[in-house]
Amino acid sequence: MQPHQLELLAPARDADIGIEAVNHGADAVYIGGPSFGARAAASNDIADIARLVDHAHRFNARVFVTLNTILRDDELEPARQQIWQLYDAGVDALIIQDMGLLELDLPPIQLHASTQTDIRTPEKARFLQDVGLSQIVLARELDLGQIAAIRAATRPETTLEFFVHGALCVAYSGQCYISHAHTGRSANRGDCSQACRLPYQVTDMKGRIVAHDKHVLSMKDNNQSDNLEALIDAGIRSFKIEGRYKDMGYVKNITAHYRTLLDEIIDRRPEFARASAGRTTFAFTPDPNQNFNREFTDYFVSGRKDDIGAFDTPKNPGLFIGYVSKVGDKWVELQTDSPDIVLNNGDGLCYYTLQKDLAGLAINRSEKQGSGVWRVFPKDPMASFKDLRAGTLVNRNRDMNWTRLLDRPSSERRIGVWLRLDETDAGFALTLVDEEGNTAAVNAAHAKEVAKDAAKAEATLREHLGKLGTTPFAAMGIALELRQPWFVPASFLNALRRDAVAALETARAAAYVRPACAQAVEPPAIYPEDTLSYLANVYNHKARDFYAKHGVRLIAAAYESHEETGEVSLMITKHCVRYSLSLCPKQAKGVTGVQGTVRAAPLTLINGSEKLILRFDCKPCEMHVVGKLKPAVAKNSAPLMFFKTRA
User: Fold this and answer.
1) Helix and strand totals (H; E) in the chain
2) Residue ranges of the Peptidase U32 collagenase domain (predicted)?
């Protein structure tokens, strides 16, 4: 990708969703392969990925495959074989975490550094660039200044990628081991149990309850809609939407939303360009609030804030629509916030109980009673709705009208093309030139017959030549280079146009060039540290060889190898529970201490029999969630041991 291009990168659970992501304006799509992706339940076979590749490349959009888990030694060869199959299927790039892959015999396919590689510093970013990674996904926790510093430390041709929308992992990506420690399911191997979404009781060192049944590790959803231009100016060129588990409607809507925002910036700032071909029009107005979300935050992009958590519920609270005015034996009457709100059969409503739990209500039937007044009959018995009474505020978290709208075809993506009709000695020639300069020309013999009505003949020529409706093209101009008006039958014109379109598609396919691989610098770049702990996620001997080659002298095995059986940091996060609960010593009145000198006392998280300790490192302003490997988990796999003596 060129430094002036802006790439909208959309997720795909499967090929059909990926195709619609492209149709709704994505410049690139990322999708899981048959295995080794960080979303284990979102895998796809090679044939389906090849089908997505064929569609994406029609618009010069690219397809990236996630191969971003850490691998055991016995998985390296299957992974290598899969990479070659993906390359043969036309995939443009791989998103990887395991550096052991760089030690294998790989095809000339572009490699991107997954967010799982935890890129927070200019030194780490420059190192990954220098070992041959073309695109690097920065940590979600960075602010604009930190992003700009990474941009200044890397080459212009190294693309910086940043998540702009979707669910947020509370941990620095790649730095969470709670799932593995408690269940044996490793987040670094695509099987996270999402302990961060559970409710916890928070106690202090004396056992006093600080917070009760709060989802204190659950974040609101990321939304950088208001920060796109600032991110561009800081150096971001690839704008990534989270969501390889998301459904078709989510991908359509969120892709369309960011396509619209980026196009507005590109149209206003001609120094930037889209990273693929064509313009997209939508049959709906994109609205991120219509999809599942835990409310929104821009996280740390603009600095630390205290409202980043979804502490009351990890569910979708929806949008406020009104309040309960009456409660009957089989119905609820609602006064809506606006007379324009329409409630539909199948809509999902929700409200907070007195204990601040989110309760859901699915509408079986809705009846309008008057302006802004609706009587709804729930699917479940009225007795099952706790604390539902007159005055209760109600949100809607599923709008069936919106769902049905996105179930239908909802976009068109077209590449601009100019057509020119010339006459030849034997008949006529049609030339097509697309917006990227690709050209196709076809000619066919046909007798010339002088038109009786010149204006009508010209109108007929333009009408039939411009009929590009079922193709990926849109006519930007039609030139008729004729000595005089001719009558040309519609059947001949249609055949000539179809042949020219087919020739242009062939020319575009032949002109498509997969992105080039970055080359590792020589001599090998030196890693910024000479010692690696379990936090480096080194899980195979090829990865160990990689780091040793790059100057690391002491290398510990990944947490999943079970060398660390005692208490360690199972999660490292920029989120601070003390800060979010207004308990941070630096927030206290009169505390002005030097950065790093204030030490916050530990807290404890309790969920059933599970206990985790929160320790606070105030100098970098980070929180460590501390725990240890459960004995039952430790028994289930053999440890991977490395020789630890310094080289």
Assistant:
1) 14, 32
2) 394-508
